[in-house]
Amino acid sequence: MAKRSKTSNKWLEEHFSDEFVQRAQQEGYRSRASFKLLELNEKDRLIKPGMTVVDLGAAPGGWSQIAAELVGHTGKVVALDILEMDPVPDVDFVLGDFQEESVLNELMSVIDGRPVDLVMSDMAPNTSGVKAIDQPRSIYLCELTLELALSVLKPGGNMVVKVFQGEGFDEYLRACRQSFTRVVSRKPEASRNRSREIYLVAQGRRI
Fold first, then answer.
1. With b meaning 16 or more CB within 10 Å and e meaning fewer, what string describes 8-43?
2. Could you say which of 10, 126, 161, 196 is the most buried, measured as most Cβ atoms within 10 Å of its Cβ?
3. What are phi and psi of 199, to 5 degrees?
4. Alpha-carbon distance 28 to 156, whole Å?
5. Could you give the dihedral angle defined by the CA atoms of residues 60, 62, 67 and 72, in that order, rounded to the nearest 10 degrees?
């Protein structure tokens, strides 16, 4: 069995000593990312009982878990990812890339004509470590999220999207402000300090 590198060991040590990783295990959440959504929801009141929520890039299901708890049995959560995801109670899952017409059609079929209140995305690209490659990939995922959000959200609906600060960010922020009446950036406590990730909370889809 190959020895782990010092970097790998350091990451594992940091990961398992992480406060939010420990809390996620204790509280039954699938990932530390759950606490990011909980904080965003506390600040911006995004998810309420009865809402319809679409969760893009949902695996392993941390955000879907939170959303399903908050919308309750009268609401609906539809999760989508290119990776398999273990079932989450009260969450409908679509496997695939929504850029593909067949997958998008399946997503729309599961939504079943319900007005969508919130589209959320914690998606990030597989990173190469090269900023000039990773940043455009990240912004592209954000653009796809915005495009889908504008096609399914009801007037006044909301979007939450993870964005990495860097080239293309300002242009993306402008596009969000053109499409929503209120856009704020958030850096949840569970987001690691060294990460360039922030979350844009876009509320009030313009008609």
1. eeeeeeeeeeeebbeebeeeebbbbbbbbbbbbbee
2. 161
3. -120, 130
4. 33
5. 90
* Half-sphere exposure (Cβ direction) of 147: Cα atoms closer than 13 Å: 9
Structure tokens at 133: 């490659």
pLDDT in tens, the chain (207 residues): 445 555 555 534 554 456 656 675 666 576 788 999 999 999 999 999 999 999 999 999 999 999 999 999 999 999 999 999 999 999 999 999 999 999 999 999 999 999 999 999 999 887 777 887 889 999 999 999 999 999 999 999 999 999 999 999 999 999 999 999 999 999 999 887 778 899 999 999 998
Cα–Cα nearest to 54, from 159, 185, 197, 156: 159
Residues near 8 by beta carbon (within 8 Å), at least 6 away in sequence: none
Any domain includes 3: no
Query: Which entry of 43, 76, 162, 187 is annotated as an active-site residue?
Result: 162
Count of the separate structural domains present in the chain: 1
Is residue 162 annotated as a catalytic residue, yes or no?
Answer: yes
End-to-end Cα separation, the chain, in angstroms: 58
* Cross-strand bridge partners of residue 95: 81
Distance from C-alpha of 16 to C-alpha of 113, rounded to nearest angstrom: 42
- Domain residues for the domain of 150 are 32-205
